[in-house]
Write a structure and sequence with these properties.
The protein is of the alpha+beta class. It is 19% helix and 32% strand. The protein contains eleven helices and 29 strands. Strands 6-5-2-3-4-8-7 form a seven-stranded antiparallel β-sheet. Strands 23, 24, 25, 26, 27, 28 and 29 form a seven-stranded antiparallel β-sheet that branches. Strand 5 and strand 6 form a beta hairpin.
């Protein structure tokens, strides 16, 4: 059976369904996983754990749990669904297994309908969140509140609040929600950069709707990337038990400081198997601060395509080692082009720090302040060259089409689109200068799906009006009235095709 990375948002499920999961339960606050059978070598290992758990872990749990909340959402098309999350079994199972709308699909997606079968977010869900400030700002995962019309926040002391979405960042799967309150319990920021592999951490959240659940584990690995979970990855890997409903919950160190936001699990079954991932505070804190301040995330931008070097590529470019990031493409009129970078350059140093690989460079650039003048060292034709590049702001190109009235039967309700850039056009086999918007998701049973619109289609016209950007798409689609036919010109796999939708 294939391994699958899953989101950990989940609805309330019955105890009968939960009992099977409990047989595989993770480590609880009391370290029952420690064997009572000691060998000549084991006491030295078990003694520190027993001593720490008797006081330290208990105090951490008492301090942190009041600030880890339960977030329940009702999707825009499920307003009538009960707030407790008790929808039909199909919706509940979809929440348990995730779906292709989030950062985990459709690659490797496995759900009750079968592997890889496309399906959208159909109902509400339940997850966790962490109160960061006493005036009610909460950090959680984007997939916990994605597509939500209503957000309900419940504290461990049973107080309930209506949550307002302050901002989201799908590229890291983070979001900020605000509730109106003061002197609320909160968790202090910790420094994830000081974590070490083998260090104890506690995960706090609401798995399966079981509020204020605390599990214990260690940091299994740091800097996990290339998981295909989010666009920007720098995960803490932990074996602290994380299950559906833990999404958005706290990963804290033994001082009770927040070091990560629990986000995903790597599993064959959909439940805990000892491999969980959390977004570190080194990434989440700047995003939280940006969302609170600006309502969006401002990232540095070079405007290049990059890839890793292997032995063969390094040899071809006259390099003796595989360190560095190979520039595979330079966008027209980008900061990189204006700064002098060219296709085939190998970036070996950025802002005075060596570049190990493409992922490392991506992290460096996105965390650079817009407008900064950054020294960049490259290898070109076997020679070292220095450039100074003024960092631009990364364009936020991904938007979801929504009708202002909120009506479910709007022609493009549930359609997510993205501006067509040169790199995406090439991937779709189109001319690099082609114009349009790329469909990234179409909700099931929507008018657009019934008309035949699919993810990967490039929309070029709506009712014979050219669509060259997301802004054009929103303008053209918003003019379509209920009951009207809409004529859509798309490009699919290099071929032009007209579609007609009626709602």
């Amino acid at each position: 059976m294939n391994h699958v990375v899953r989101r950990t948002v989940g609805p309330v499920i019955g105890m009968a369904a939960l009992s099977a999961v409990l047989l595989w339960g993770g480590r609880s606050l009391t370290p029952s996983h420690a064997s009572n059978t000691q060998t000549a070598e084991s006491p030295a290992v078990l003694a520190p754990l027993a001593a720490a758990s008797s006081q330290g872990f208990t105090e951490v749990a008492k301090a942190v749990t009041p600030a880890v909340v339960n977030i329940t959402t009702v999707a825009a098309d499920k307003v009538s669904e009960d707030r407790s999350g008790r929808g039909d079994m199909r919706d509940r199972m979809e929440e348990f297994f995730g779906g292709p709308n989030g950062p985990f699909g459709p690659k490797g997606f496995r759900g009750p309908q079968g592997p890889g079968e496309p399906r959208g977010h159909r109902g509400g869900g339940q997850g966790s969140g962490v109160i960061i400030s006493s005036d009610g700002y909460i950090l959680t995962n984007n997939h916990v509140i994605d597509g939500a019309k209503d957000v309900s926040v419940t504290l461990p002391d049973k107080r309930e609040f209506t949550g307002k979405i302050v901002g989201t960042d799908p590229k890291t799967d983070l979001a900020v929600v605000k509730i109106e309150g003061d002197r609320l319990p909160s968790v202090a920021w910790g420094d994830a950069s000081k974590l070490q592999v083998g260090e104890y951490v506690l995960a706090v959240g609401n798995p399966f709707g079981l509020n204020s659940t605390v599990t214990l584990g260690i940091v299994s690995a740091l800097g996990r990337g290339r998981m295909g979970i989010t666009q920007y990855e720098d995960f803490i890997q932990t074996d602290a038990a994380i299950n559906p409903g833990n999404s958005g919950g706290a990963l804290v160190n033994t001082k009770g400081e927040l070091v990560g936001i629990n986000t995903a699990i790597f599993s064959q079954t959909g439940g805990y198997q000892g491999v969980g991932f959390a977004v570190p505070t080194s990434m989440s804190r700047p995003i939280y601060e940006s969302l609170v301040k600006n309502g969006k995330v401002v990232r540095g931008f070079l405007g290049i395509g990059i890839q890793d070097l292997n032995q063969d590529l390094a040899k071809s470019f006259g390099m003796k080692q595989t360190k560095g990031a190979l520039v595979s493409d330079v966008r027209e009129d980008s900061p990189a082009e204006r700064g002098g970078l060219k296709q085939g350059d190998i970036i070996v140093s950025y802002q005075g720090s060596s570049v190990e690989d493409a992922v490392a460079l991506q992290r460096m650039v996105t965390r650079t302040a817009v407008g900064a003048h950054v020294p960049v060292k490259v290898m070109r034709d076997g020679h070292e060259k220095d450039f100074t590049i003024t960092i631009g702001e990364q364009p936020d190109t991904t938007k979801v089409a929504k009708v202002d009235s909120g009506e479910k039967d709007f022609a493009f309700a549930g359609v997510a689109v993205q501006d067509l850039d040169r790199e995406t056009a090439k991937e779709l086999g189109m001319n690099a200068k082609s114009a349009g918007v790329v469909v990234t998701n179409v909700d099931p049973d929507s008018g657009a799906e019934k008309a035949g619109l699919m993810a990967g289609d490039v929309i070029r016209e709506i009712n014979r009006q050219p669509v060259k950007s997301v802004k054009d798409f929103e303008k053209a689609s918003s003019s379509v009235k209920k009951g009207e036919n809409v004529l859509i010109l798309i490009t699919r796999r290099g071929s032009a095709l007209f579609l007609s939708a009626k709602v």
